[in-house]
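lol so apparently i was supposed to do this last week
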Amino acid sequence: MKKIICMLLAVMLLPVSACAQPVEPDLSAYDTSGKAEIPMEILGGLDQATREDLLEEPKYVALTFDDGPRADTTGRLLDGLLERGAAATFFVIGEQVPCNEDLLRRMRAEGHQIGNHTYSHVRLLKAEKDMVVEEVHKTEVLLKEAVGEGDFWLRPPYGLIGCERSKLIKTPMIYWSVDPQDWKLLDKGKVVDAVLAAVQPGDIILLHDFYSTSVDAALEIIDRLQADGYAFVTVEELFRIQGVEPQEGTLYARPDRVREVK
Ligand SMILES: [Zn+2]
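anyway here it is w/ zinc ion bound
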């Protein structure tokens, strides 16, 4: 008996490997193909209104982050998103791409959407047409070099582009429907409150991964909304879920709401 115990101990104490193997991220949480499954034994004990409410979940929403990537804030955000099984969309500034390619590759590998936020964050509304094309194209090239082929939707800086210049854009353009003005508040609690007071299913929320307070706020927003039956998907997924085919050169506040460009 003593011999058997010693053998068992020896097996248990054997080092499995000299170094830990990298763990492939579990992307199954991003599956948006169906509704939440709620066991019948739970549904059976609920009143009609609560039951209907639960069956409607999850409520889908898209978090979007502008002006990154930034090494010390975006990496922490990606860690938090992965932990929570939440997807997001990053509208990236071309100038920020060099030296941050690893962050971009991580975004793509972990199921996030990458978009274009121009090369140098210009006001497209006032820019010469050649410059509009160049600002978008230059960023597209950098993104392709970093992560490979893709359709990098545009978020015009400040949400401004104008009718004439929007005709030059060959992808859908994304505005937002919830703006907590995180860049101005720079306060986690206030940003969380502003988003929670306004958010509805189908919304596109504007944040900036450039600010540490915004990263903190985003992670708390996810925790609070997930507890309320929300699921976080990319903008592209939000369109697919709502059955909307996005059109190039059109600026959307949400998949079901086009923003007029003047
Ligand atoms: Zn911006």
